[in-house]
Amino acid sequence: MLTAKPAETEKELLQILQLQQQYLAGHNSSEEEKEQGFVTVHHTLQKLKQLHALAPSVIVKDKDEVIAYALVMLNKAGDLIPELFSMFQMLKTLSYRDKLLSAYSYYVMGQICVDKPYRGQGVFQMLYDKHKKLMQPHYDFVLTEIATRNTRSIRAHEKVGFELLHRFKDEKEEWDVVIWNWR
Question: What is the pTM of this model?
């Protein structure tokens, strides 16, 4: 039976890192990445522990195995992951409904991954349903950025209810910043 819950143990964090490693951009063929999606940032156990000290991420387990995760990144986490520093800086300049994002209470979904054998079974939705249940009382919305070439992820986020807020290019990728408004 699949269960969605906050990550709590070091064993669960290590299993998140194992999944991340399997689906990290560049570790699979470009055809596989185009069809199945990918994640872009590699975390260490130390960084994951720091993120989880601020707010635990959501996982889905099949018995004792983590088969999916969605990392929670509060705005305070912007300084912890150097690869994401520029994203957090850019978010400070964006507006939503004619107000700067800083006028709202929000967090960033830092990375989401579902193990291949579990895709197409509603696990992605389970992750975000649990995010909403845990975080909606405290936040107006959640944001994330997705590489535009990661079409599987873009479609999955649209299905959940995310909308495009902003598109930009950096030195490596074109990105969509998407928002899921809970108010």
Answer: 0.89
